[in-house]
């Protein structure tokens, strides 16, 4: 059972609420047994351990008596006390890369025709579904996010259908309008980008081999001007690596058939990561997604430019029968976030499920590192680490309670990272 607690903006000014649980996980490296999170005006104001057999009184002091002695739930100074149970209060999970817009395609696509076949199938079925169905299924999937413990999202929208949905459901994170092909720069101006503590609006490029490099630079420039994250699929497929290395191949023919002139694209003898670096697109507010086809030199570039990275291993397994080299990324001190990608390539949008998959496929990666991928690394990837990702004082009072009954810190982390929803 996962309970979502979001007091962001919901508190009466000056009213304090104390959330108690068997454990409070401030971060994967800092757990408190019998802990309390104090919340006021939508922010976390304190996190501390309650001495056993004692109860809250006012002003952070502790008095004798059982916690639940007051049936009204009111503390001695009128503050509200909520005792959640034996489980753990922890940061909301972050799904740093998803496409709610493709939710209607769940279980509709085959993975056995290769990646290009899958993309072709996706485009045909997406167009056949129509905007009403796509928006309806996107809304349904968006409503389930909180039940999966996800409090922050990096939603990628190609058609713009999910903007009002994420706004109407008060979802937090970043909504990205995605660009691909060779659309004119003028089109970017129609998309208002805006930074906010609740939901920011930013821009994304689709991928190095699908999007005009000059358009990518223009999009990145817009997001950089407002210090917003810029997201791009990067080094995902063999087709992409082949095209960027200078062999036009099938992909070059495909772009030509769609009237896209690639003669001025500066491809040749490069990897997708090196190509983006040469275009000046990599920095600490760029979020590269997938990173399946990279080598040691690419890892050095990502580390040097402090590029954020997001991995979607379940989607990679389905589409490419291949997984990213997370061990090497961690060796280079890169801090991967996790994303589900869309329901067109993955069974669920749950980051608990993504963590469980990572634990299963990467038994040598420590469980606390996996949990950090789903929390603080995701918050950094979306430029929200000052608000989310841990339960440190001053961050938003949005967190989750997971109903567990585990005796030790390591058993808690083990349970959280293998807990499929
Ligand atoms: Zn994607």
Overview of the structural elements:
With 421 residues, the protein is an alpha/beta fold. It folds into 2 domains: 2-91 and 391-417, Urease, subunit C, domain 1 (Roll); 93-381, Metal-dependent hydrolases (TIM Barrel), CATH 3.20.20. Helices cover 31% and strands 24% of the residues. It is built from 13 helices and 17 strands. Helix 3 links the parallel strand 12 and strand 13. Bound molecules: zinc ion. Zinc ion is lined by residues 97, 99, 156, 233, 289, 341.
Outline the fold blueprint:
Layout: E1 2-6, E2 16-27, E3 30-40, E4 43-49, E5 54-56, E6 62-64, E7 80-83, E8 88-91, E9 93-98, H1 114-144, E10 150-157, H2 163-168, E11 172-179, E12 199-205, H3 213-225, E13 230-234, H4 238-244, H5 249-257, H6 272-278, E14 286-290, H7 296-305, E15 308-311, H8 313-320, H9 326-331, E16 337-338, H10 351-361, H11 367-374, H12 376-381, E17 398-402, H13 409-417
Helix pairs in contact: 4-5, 10-11, 11-13
Bound molecules: zinc ion (ZN).
Zinc ion (ZN) binds at residues 97, 99, 156, 233, 289, 341.
Percentage of β-strand residues: 15-25%
Sheet with the most strands?
Answer: 8 strands, parallel
CATH level 3 topology of the largest domain? TIM Barrel
CATH class of the largest domain: Alpha Beta
Q: What is the string of SSEs from the N terminus onward?
A: EEEEEEEEEHEHEEHEHHHEHEHHEHHHEH
Sheet with the most strands: spatial strand order: 9-10-11-12-13-14-15-16
Separation of termini? 9 Å
Cofactors and ligands: zinc ion
Q: Based on DSSP secondary structure assignment, what is the total number of beta strands?
A: 17
Q: Which oligomeric state applies?
A: single chain
**Percentage of residues in helical conformation:** 25-40%
- Class by alpha and beta content: alpha/beta
The whole-number mean of residue pLDDT values reads 88
Poorly predicted tracts of residues: 57-74
Which architecture name of the largest domain does CATH use? Alpha-Beta Barrel
Tally the helices.
Answer: 13
